[in-house]
Automatic annotation (TrEMBL):
Species name: Siculibacillus lacustris
Domain Peptidase S11 D-Ala-D-Ala carboxypeptidase A C-terminal: 298-388
Protein name: serine-type D-Ala-D-Ala carboxypeptidase
Function: Removes C-terminal D-alanyl residues from sugar-peptide cell wall precursors.
Keywords (A to Z) from UniProt: Carboxypeptidase, Cell shape, Cell wall biogenesis/degradation, Hydrolase, Peptidoglycan synthesis, Protease, Signal
Family: Belongs to the peptidase S11 family.
Length: 409
């Protein structure tokens, strides 16, 4: 079944028109059509007018996961201190699940002090050797100052050693869907086997923002003082007036200057990744340029609200001939401004659906395309329950299916 939907006019008009067309088109659908060409969440054509100096770049819409711009987004590279986002992903879960408390303390071992503290001449919160630091302070040290001593102290406090903590990082990475990352330490200090991609790093940022909003907010803090030493947040985007509230910078000689940033304007959040920039200035300029371009170029269109009826799927042997279908979440699509008329939607399912049907029973998926390119796929479910029909109703449905089968030959 394929139903094209015009995307002109206000959102309410879009939704009503789409629902009506899909409702008519769904009746009688018996098998899913071939998938439209293109990759879900792929880069819109508008990105052709954009480029960066850095070799690696990615811009993603947070709400939909749509890729707005990409350049070598799957290329593996040393993430440097961007690694610490994964360190926070593990730590945040420990806190959320009650195994750690922000008021708890971890010791600063000699290893943490020498490898990531004052003697290391790397990013540090200058925690004294053999002291104890509150977990809330260690989080701020890592998130604001990129403190290597703080990251090692957290790793040792949770897992005993850096390598054991790295095992937790890799296990968690798989759980949240990372496909091309391997972490060997909690800091991102040079190690040839410590690798990631822009795509995976954006996914970590999205995970932190979605699952741990109360802890993520530390990334927006402009400064932090520890051991009487005041340090500013290393993220240059926070001062650019873009609505940035995170996330992390990184640099080692092997990878160049890197950043993962996120910003919100008018309720729309974008995530940007820059990797391999030649200078600190170039890194900031590329990230700022991509975010500004994304906010200016794209608009969000709501096709359906959560629970809003999209149409009806055909029912066999039930008290009704059709069951209303809906998405569990808002169907928001990000498209280049002025391209609403190129938006199309269809519901794909295998049917008719045999009764009984329970409310919220999975039915199929809503496939949204622009210029025949799939940009979003959303599961749809039954919006109501349908009981088994009478013997007469089932006989009528059986006859109808037989006739339809003959017509399809």
């Amino acid at each position: 079944m394929t139903a094209n939907v015009s995307a002109r006019g206000p959102r309410g008009v879009i939704a009503r028109l789409a629902a009506a067309v899909l409702c008519l088109a769904l009746v009688g659908a018996t098998k899913p059509p071939a998938k439209a060409p293109g990759k879900t969440g792929s880069t819109p054509a508008a990105a052709a007018a954009m480029d960066t100096k850095a070799d690696i770049a990615l811009l993603v819409d947070y709400a939909t996961g749509t890729t707005l711009f990409e350049k070598n987004a799957e290329r593996s590279f040393p993430p440097a201190s961007l690694t610490k986002m994964m360190t926070m992903a593990v730590t945040f879960r420990e806190i959320a699940e009650g195994r750690l408390s922000l008021d708890g303390e971890f010791p600063i071992s000699e290893h943490a002090w020498r490898t990531g503290g004052a003697p290391s001449h790397t990013s540090s919160m200058f925690a004294p050797i053999n002291s104890k630091a509150k977990i809330v302070d260690l989080l701020q040290g890592v998130m604001i100052q990129s403190a290597n001593d703080g990251a090692i102290a957290i790793a040792e406090g949770i897992a005993g050693t850096e390598s054991a903590f790295a095992d937790l990082m890799n296990r968690r990475a798989k759980e949240i869907g990372l496909e091309n990352s391997n972490f060997t330490n909690p800091t991102g200090l040079p190690d040839p086997a410590n690798r990631s991609t822009a795509r995976d790093l954006a996914a970590i940022a999205r995970h932190l923002i979605t699952d741990y909003p109360d802890l993520y907010k530390f990334y927006s803090q402009r400064e932090f003082t520890y051991n009487k030493i005041r340090q500013l947040n290393r993220n240059p985007l926070l001062a650019e007036g873009l609505g940035a509230d995170g996330v992390k910078t990184g640099y080692i000689k092997e990878s160049g200057y890197n950043i993962v940033g996120s910003a919100v304007q008018n309720g729309q959040r974008l995530i940007v990744v820059i990797g391999g920039a030649a200078t600190e200035k170039e890194r900031g300029e590329d990230a700022r340029k991509l975010l500004d371009w994304g906010f200016r170029t794209f608009e969000s269109v709501r096709l359906y609200g959560a629970g809003e009826s999209i149409g009806e799927a055909m029912v066999f042997g039930g008290t009704a001939n059709g069951v209303k279908v809906a998405a569990a979440k808002n169907v928001d699509i990000l498209i280049p401004r002025g391209n609403r008329d190129k938006l199309r939607a269809r519901v794909v399912y295998t049917g008719p659906i045999k009764a009984p049907i329970a409310k919220d029973q999975p039915i199929g998926k809503l496939v949204v395309t622009r210029n025949e390119q799939v940009i979003q796929e959303i599961p749809v479910a039954a919006a109501e329950s349908i009981e088994v029909g009478t013997l007469r109703q089932r006989a009528v449905d059986g006859t109808r299916e037989l006739l339809m089968g003959l017509l399809r030959r």
